[in-house]
Amino acid sequence: MTSGIVGASGQAVIEEMAGQVQRWREEHGSSTMPTWTESGIPVPPLYGPEDAVGDYGTQLGVPGSPPYTRGVYPTMYSGRAWSIRPLAGFGTVEDTNRRLRLLLDEGATAINTVFDYPTNRGYDSDDEWARADAGLGGVAVDSIDDMVDLYDGVPLDEVSVSLVLSHPVAAGAILAMYLAAAKRRGFDPARLSGTLQNDFMMETVVLTAPSVLEPEFAFRLSMDVTEYCTRHLPRWHPVSFTGYNYREAGADAVLEVALVVANAVATVEAMRARGLPVDPVARRLSAFFTAGSDLFEEVAKYRAARRVYHGVMTERFDPMDERSTRLRFHVQTSGSALTAAQPLNNVARAALHGLAAVLGGAQSLHISAYDEALCIPSETAALTALRTQQILLSETGVTRSIDPLAGSYLVEHLTDEVESRVRKILANIDGMGGLVRAVDTGWVHARILDLACQATADIDEGRRPVVGVNVSANQAPTTVETFDVPETLPKQGERLMRLRSNRDNDAVTNALHRLEQCVVDGTNTMPALIAAAEAGATLGQCCDVFRHHHGAGANPCDEVRPMPIRVAIFKPGLDSHYRGALTISRHLASRGMEVVYLGNQLPAGAARAALQEDVDVLGISSLSGNHLATVPAVIAELRAQGGQNILVVLGGIIPDIDRPLMFEAGVQRIFGPGTPLEHIAQEITLLVRERDAADASVPIGSPL
To answer: Residue 621 in 3-state DSSP?
Structure first.
């Protein structure tokens, strides 16, 4: 990017350089293969000055000044390093508290707490839906008492805490419990610093659940939190737009940025409608991006995101405070890019992902652990991820120069191209009436699922190389010791029993009644949630109020045509990551099968639905680790209800040590992470043909 900063002699030099590049292309271009970034941006083998045209002042500038392409702060890492913010959460609050304090002792400068599936979805640990998932994927939190113990010994007025909970059905209640717990410990809530994800897209698009809030109501709850924090918690970030999760669900880098910016626009518009000016709202907004394997595209993505965000916020809202147009963001390195095959390769992957985040100017960073494709990170893996950040910070020299890839013809061209493509998507969303409407119509779901299916096909067919999966995949299996989540349900059950026995249940009833009145009359729900938390109401009790009135939402899925082989696929319990389930559903449909996606089911419900749909195959998609409890129960229910002839297949993260137990229970096939979609389709077809060829019912568990 050079125009606007050179004179006539400099321009002549540039023209000569461009001529050299053109002559190279004429001589060598025909012998090079075309390539594309993961978002489909063409990448020729050689760039020159003409590929990075533009005005330095308006498109680049200096760090800390509009349009913030080069960073949101003047000195960036040369003045202050990024926050080392590792993620932790599993089992009980005591288990997670030990891990959090270990990470702080070992050099973490802030903490991210991830919550288990029931907490994310607003269910108490002893709820029928939650029992198999308690403590899986994060820490179990049911009440203010749990929140007090979770952060015991952590100086909440000194350490920035990110509550990694996105779903509005539970986000406000969890924040309310955090505030009430901090107050009980003597901290002034106004002095607390941290972040709540609180993104309505997580409730309505990215993940699934037995009961999903309607998009408009999910957005309203998110805005209740945002309004309350803006008025009462000056150091708190009330929403962090979860681009990371959009990407994990299937979005590419361009769509990731576009959805984050569209979400920010919708948030500011909603807050203005509630009487809040732009600046106090916009100054506290933040984003949560992923870092993937396409190094230069990822760096360009962060730079383009800052520039687009500044431009859109300025154009739409004309804020008085320039800080309102700065996009500050946390980065977590990609979980879906990590492989179960050859898992130690993930150390290198995660380090390169982290490098992309730092080169792109992230404000804080979590590097994913090498064993995350297999289990909750072990202590060794978590510390390795932490040390990876410390090596980036201390040994590589990346902090010496701000925005060190600025001026690269490739990076500047990609930055411009990402910005242009993001702007086109934003115009499309505007044409639909905004992001909430785009979600309500299913447009966002369809766009993400299309990209997810394409990415999976690219890996299966070798167009996107992944070492250990479709490149150099013949290595002997690498054994990595997996981490077993401590038993959680009995302990949480005891805690809940004590809570319910010792609290003032009349006070809880009155508090929940006030919460319900807020839902009905449209007033902000946060004060009532805080009062309910202080009275001892459980998370499930608060969230049941929301589900009772607005729990009729649904994730729209494509219809598939009827064909001979019938397959039903479901997620057991509160396992909510449904990208894989929908991707395989679409692929099986494209291969001539009739596919019924059942969403989240309990064992009895899954068996009943499979019989009602008259399916040949019941597929269980398990990523949360609840397979030991749910899979045998599903098969037992099939037997009890007369479904012995239905074939059961299992997909997801199933440790090798558990596989014999699954086969013994009656599972016919297990498909682990990275299994090609076409292989799954072929195996299902073979299973059904062999069963039918036998001309007799084959009891579940019998060899075929």
So the answer is: strand
Burial of 660 (0-12, 13-18, 19+ CB in 10 A): exposed
Integer Cα distance of 543 and 227 in angstroms: 19
**Could you tell me the two tokens for 154?**
């952590």
* CA atoms 350, 353, 355, 357: torsion sign: negative
Q: What is the DSSP string of 485-516?
A: PPP-HHHHHHHHHHHHHHS-HHHHHHHHHHHH
For residue 457, the SS3 value is helix
The rounded distance, in Å, linking the Cα atoms of 262 and 434 is 7
**Ramachandran angles phi, psi of 413, nearest 5°:** -65, -45
Which tokens in the block code for residue 700? 């579940």
List domains and CATH numbers for the chain. Answer: 1-81+242-444 (3.20.20.240), 86-159+167-239+472-556 (3.20.20.240), 566-693 (3.40.50.280)
Between the alpha carbon of residue 241 and those of residues 199, 210, 387, 557, the distances in Å are 6, 23, 27, 23
Alpha helix ranges (H) inside 80-214 = 93-105, 117-121, 144-150, 168-184, 200-201
Identify the pLDDT of residue 9: 60
Helix axis angle for 526-535 and 505-521, nearest 10°, is 170
pLDDT in tens, 386-400: 999 999 999 999 999
Local structure of residue 213 (DSSP, 8 states): -
pLDDT tens profile 561-604: 334 799 999 999 888 788 888 899 999 998 889 999 999 999 99
**Residue 538 to residues 52, 256, 403, 523, 591, Cα–Cα distance (Å):** 56, 34, 47, 21, 46
- Please write the tens of the pLDDT for every residue from 132-165: 999 998 999 999 999 999 999 999 999 999 999 9
Tell me the two tokens of residue 404.
């060190």
Token pair in block for residue 468: 């250990």
Cis upstream peptide for 404 (omega within 30°): no
pLDDT by residue (tens digit) across 54-75? 777 788 999 999 999 999 999 9
Kindly write down the DSSP assignment for every residue of 347-402, as one continuous string: HHHHHHHHHHHHHTT-SEEEPPPTTTTTSSPPHHHHHHHHHHHHHHHHHS-TTSSS
CA distance 561 to 576: 26
Judge contact between 329 and 302, C-beta under 8 A: yes
What does the radius of gyration of the chain's CA atoms come to, in whole angstroms? 26
* Residue 647, SS3 per DSSP: strand
